[in-house]
């Protein structure tokens, strides 16, 4: 049985109220659709021409943690280590989460040997970033 990790948040950062992760997207509309309709992330807000940018803000498991996708006019280079890893408590929960992707005929991609060994399933978003569905909580 794997023990849960306990980390202590640094005192200097204790007053942080929220955290956001942002990525640029060369395929903005398709990427927003992918995360909203196929992955199932709740879309909190969209914005247009906000200081020159268009974007979408998705909710993650905690209300104060969000993922922002910002439209890019240029092609965005994607590194193969740019992953969004979603950890589920078990395989049935993992399989339920990927059902929409399978129903949409989205095929899993070849994945890192670690993910293969632990039973994860990996898909690519329209920009080529990997979304990993793991059947355990890290």
From TrEMBL:
<dbReference type="InterPro" id="IPR037523">
    <property type="entry name" value="VOC_core"/>
</dbReference>
<feature type="domain" description="VOC">
    <location>
        <begin position="17"/>
        <end position="136"/>
    </location>
</feature>
<dbReference type="Pfam" id="PF22659">
    <property type="entry name" value="YycE-like_C"/>
</dbReference>
<dbReference type="InterPro" id="IPR058998">
    <property type="entry name" value="YycE-like_N"/>
</dbReference>
<dbReference type="InterPro" id="IPR058997">
    <property type="entry name" value="YycE-like_C"/>
</dbReference>
<dbReference type="InterPro" id="IPR029068">
    <property type="entry name" value="Glyas_Bleomycin-R_OHBP_Dase"/>
</dbReference>
<protein>
    <recommendedName>
        <fullName>VOC domain-containing protein</fullName>
    </recommendedName>
</protein>
<dbReference type="Pfam" id="PF22658">
    <property type="entry name" value="YycE-like_N"/>
</dbReference>
